[in-house]
Amino acid sequence: MRGDLRLAVRRFANEPALAIAAILTLALGIGACTAMFSIVEAVLLKSMDVAQPQRLVVMWPHVGDAAGEFTYSAYKSLSQPSSSFEHVALTGSANWPIPTDIILPDGQRVRGTQCAVSDTFFEALGARALVGRTFQAGEDHPGAPLALVVSAAFWRARLGGDPTIVGQTLTIGSDRWRILGVMPPEFFYPVGADLWTPVATVLALTAADRTPVGLQDLFDSVGAFHIVARLKPGVSVAQALTEATGRWKRLPHAPTDADARVAATPFVDHVFGNARRALWVLMGAVCLVLVLACANVAGLLVARNALRARELALRRALGASAWTSARQQLAEAGVLAAAGSLLGTAIATVSLRALIAVSPTTVVRLSETRVDSVALAVCLLITAAVTFGVTLVPALQSIRPTIAGPRHALSERDPGRSIGADTRRLLVVAQVAITVTLLTASALTWQSFRRLAALDLGFDPSNVLALDLSRLDQSRYPTPKARQQAVDGLIESLARLPAARSAAVVLDRPFAHGVIGWDSGLLRDGQQDLDAAWLANPVVNFEAVTPGYFETMGIRLRAGRDFSSIDRPGAPRAAIVSENLSARLWPGESPIGKRLLDSFG
Fold it and tell me: What is the pTM of this model?
């Protein structure tokens, strides 16, 4: 075999054009396949540390064409013994995890993200702590001791991976929270959470009125959560949703709309979203690219064998066995595949960085993707498959008897027509078929992308730069007035830049949490402050913005005026409503001058 490999290297040294073309073709195929597998392995194939995720669903209320969020009271009702659900838990919805200032046990101030969950959360997901324990029954109520669970990433990055951290405290705001446990690295739900805290405890700390009546009103009115439920064996999602919808609509504060219902999505789909299907489609596409690369190289080797027909026939006539010819073909393919694999690994590393850079940051675990040992092992398997693929056809061609006869094989006339002509035609047909498939899929994908890019978003995102102010140093700006002055100063500084036309601040940038934002109920002028009146009006999303926001985002006003410097604390409150809300609340009338009362008073 060593002799065959040396001979193969000498042959390709004498035919550099063919060697370079074959190696580059294989390198591109192997590199693309290795890079894509690395992403699929990191995002989809690694363990989630969730027991039987196929039995989990994520639920939320749905009214009309709008997705909503559950209240704590709705969760308590749905968590009662059920014929459909084995476990029911509550977790912060799309607005969570929330950025939070945290003081570590050593006094260091850091930034982290907090998500509120029920005490049944980890049990429902079947997740166990890596260090310490998770929440137990009874630790999710307003009077419970302040306790939390931390993620493995936060534990290692901020707490030094100290195994004795359990029992120590973290300070959030003015409250000290005791650490109960640390979750494994594979547990990452909700995505981006550093800390998990009990829902009822968090709500109670934010309540201005902490009497039983005030807390109950808070539990009934604050909708900011999703429900994660584990179905009982044999129960379908449709059956579970029918029961959940019936329970939810019987609650005192549930919407009265006829089309109000509970919606759900499988847990895995909720976590990975559209990225799951897209990654598998892309994985299939790059596998086709690899097959196409193998077919191309196999075609080159078959054509090369046709030109070497006289040499192969002479070797057979001199006594060389079929195995000897096949072994030489294997050695040549092995040299090409090995060189292509080395170059392909380098291409995979570079292309992986590029893919991560241009991909959405919302894809779970994408930033953790590396060409690791698993990906390299797969690369070796791919190399072996490529070697076999590019060798199979030429080797079979070499084994085929060529004495049909030797005079024709040894003749100078058209040596390739009788040897491998059918094989070459089949390879060409296969290459054309795969190429047409890939080109068609690429054209359809590009057409879909162009249509999505042409959608009217209601604002113009071009030339808009978004900055995150959620990490404003609270110690430097300790009071709301100081923070307001800092933000106002920043807006003025940005607006004066030569390249800036305008600047403004918004509570949440558009689509920061998908279709879910900050919700509020409404009362129209003249309606009494009664539950029936609140429920009769739609629940709407609201935003808090500074003057100049609509100009900055390229949003045109249909009527009325924009916010200005006169809309300050102490001045009459002003609001701008959407055209859709105006049509729902005052059909056929102008909303200018009308009055509203929202849930925040």
Answer: 0.72
